Amino acid sequence: MATQRIVTTTINGTEKSLLCEPRQTLLEVLRDNLNMTGTKEGCSNGNCGACTVLLNGDPVTSCLVLAVECEGAEIETIEGVATKDGLTPIQNAFLENAALQCGICTPGIIMSTKALLKQNPNPTEEEIRFYLAGNLCRCTGYDKIVDAVQDAAQRQCGAGCSSDA
Amino acid sequence: MRDFEYEAPESLEGAIQLLSASEAKPLAGGTDLIDHLRTGRVVADVVVDIKKIPELNVLEIDETGLRLGAAVSCMKICQHDGIREHYPSLTDACTIIGGIQIQSRASVGGNLCNSGAAADSTPALIALGGVCVIAGQDGTREVPVEEFCTGPSQNILKQGELLTEIRFPLPQGKSSSHYRRFIPRFEMDIAVVGVGASVSLDGAGEKITTARVALGAVAAKPFLAEKVDEFLVGQAPTEETFTQAGAIARELISPIDDHRGTAEFRTHVTGVLVRRVLTEAARRAAEK
Ligand SMILES: Cc1cc2nc3c(=O)[nH]c(=O)nc-3n(C[C@H](O)[C@H](O)[C@H](O)COP(=O)(O)OP(=O)(O)OC[C@H]3O[C@@H](n4cnc5c(N)ncnc54)[C@H](O)[C@@H]3O)c2cc1C
Ligand code: FES
Ligand code: FES
Questions:
Q1: Which candidate among A40, B33, B108, B130 keeps its CA 20 to 30 Å from the CA of A27?
Q2: Total-model pTM
Q3: b/e per residue A72-82 (b: at least 16 CB within 10 A)
Q4: Does B23 touch chain A (CB under 8 A)?
Q5: pLDDT tens across B198-245, in order?
Q6: Is A2 helix (H, G, I), strand (E, B) or coil?
Q7: Final residue of a domain: which of B169, B186, B211?
Q8: Burial level of B225, CB count in 10 A (0-12/13-18/19+)?
Q9: Is B51 part of a structural domain of the chain?
Q10: Is the CB of A140 under 6 A from ligand 2?
Q11: 3-state helix, strand, coil in chain B (%, to 5)
Q12: What's the total number of domains in chain A?
């Protein structure tokens, strides 16, 4: 067996050293080694987006990242989204707009939404659909997800951006 | 996944040394390689992460042109204003490779080295006159992008060689480019036909002085449609010219039938896309 490696990363703001094999994906290490099962596995080949996490701020499918590649990286997962004061506006917007049914796609979609709104605080419907094209949802038909993202944008930037801006 | 070792050299020499061992494979964004390793389509004893090598991360435009490091991600390319300005077909291709998660990781070098017949960036690279810089134990060599792929998933790289960068001349005067593909879905699909084109017009914008049209997904590898290029020189940039260019392109392809489209459909789409892509490239060129 290949030598196990110690990889030091920052996960959700906390520095962690973890032991893994070179062949393990970030998704496997999060779920199986660290018991962080909020990140979901759908296809394991990059197509569904259920495993989306932020790697140095950018959304990536963690099934297509080797954990050993993450030395020195900052990783953010769904477990790091809520604060000690409770759910964030994005999470509340998903709940209140019924933007999930079975919920397996939701952690990935929330991570992509977080990255989208950081880069583009008030996206159009088309921009939302384009950005979220790498996150598949088998249940909702997407319309409620788009509504939730638009609602989250309003909640986050409040009076700062009007709906027709 | 089958067991392998992982190395992340910080120098080109170090990488070439490691890659000279048989069953060593370079890893850029991993969006092809990691899946291929998992499914067993590719077997590796050592995976050599090439993202820490400075030469593979260059992204520079000056009066001689663009140097694009092989490991630069599509996301970085999409965010680069100079590329959008001078090499827009590259931006066009990189905004449609996969979804945003794939673009954060996938490199143009990986797209080219994976050598899929439908790789989206390759026709854009060919249209832009890209030249591959390849490093190996015996030094470096340069090869035009259209000579890089040799068939489906096959290219000219030898064991131990690494694509380090792709160089492009700086488009002069009234010149621009475009890439577009046809897919059955809106996003996240494999091209049924992909067309990249660059066009230069004379000072008055009335005649085409040079053109390069490259076709993807309609033959065993992406290729330069030289007959189309020859036809276009000296013509006026009109719809009629571009329709004729499409008709010539249809004769040059050898498409397959699959669940995304029949050969007949691919032939039809080739004609339409060549016309549309040339029209857009010429429109952009006229604005320069
Ligand atoms: C969900 C999904 C959607 C996708 N959509 C598209 C799409 O729309 N269009 C498209 O064209 N592709 C698409 N792809 C395929 C893939 O993302 C691209 O081919 C990508 O550009 C590969 O780049 P990479 O950096 O990830 O390469 P890697 O996976 O790291 O490498 C690819 C291959 O090239 C070799 N290699 C990489 N860099 C070098 C180098 N510098 N020198 C020598 N060899 C090298 C590797 O060993 C490997 O064999 C998609 C993939 C997924 C998973
Ligand atoms: S599990 Fe990673 S994209 Fe589907
Ligand atoms: S809520 Fe079930 S897949 Fe999206």
A1: B108
A2: 0.96
A3: ebebbbbbbbe
A4: no
A5: 999 999 999 999 999 999 999 999 999 999 999 999 999 999 999 999
A6: coil
A7: B169
A8: buried
A9: no
A10: no
A11: 35, 25, 35
A12: 2
- What range defines the domain where residue B146 resides? 56-169
Does A76 share its domain with A58?
yes
Nearest CA in chain A to B52: A69
User: What's the CA-to-centroid distance between B151 and ligand 3, angstroms?
Assistant: 39
Q: Among all chains, which residue has been given the structure tokens 């100079």?
A: B82
Q: Which of A7, A20, A23, A118 should be substituted to probe chain B, the one whose Cβ sees the most B Cβ atoms within 10 Å? A: A23
Question: What ipTM is given for this predicted complex?
Answer: 0.94
> Using one digit for the tens of pLDDT, what is the confidence trace for B123-174?
999 999 999 999 999 999 999 999 999 999 999 999 999 999 999 999 999 9
Task: Tell me the pLDDT tens digit for each residue of B18-65.
Answer: 999 889 999 999 999 999 999 999 999 999 999 999 999 999 999 999
Please give the backbone phi and psi of residue A57, each rounded to the nearest 5 degrees, phi first: 90, -15
Q: Does residue B209 share a domain with residue B132?
A: no
> Could you list the residue range(s) of the whole structural domain that residue A28 is in?
5-80
Q: For position B188, what pLDDT does the model report?
A: 77
**Distance (Å, whole) CA B129 – CA B212:** 8
Chosen domain end from B143, B169, B195: B169
Minimum-distance CB partner of B105 among A60, A68, A115: A60
Q: What is the DSSP string of B209-238?
A: EEEEEEEESSSSS-EE-HHHHHHHTT---S
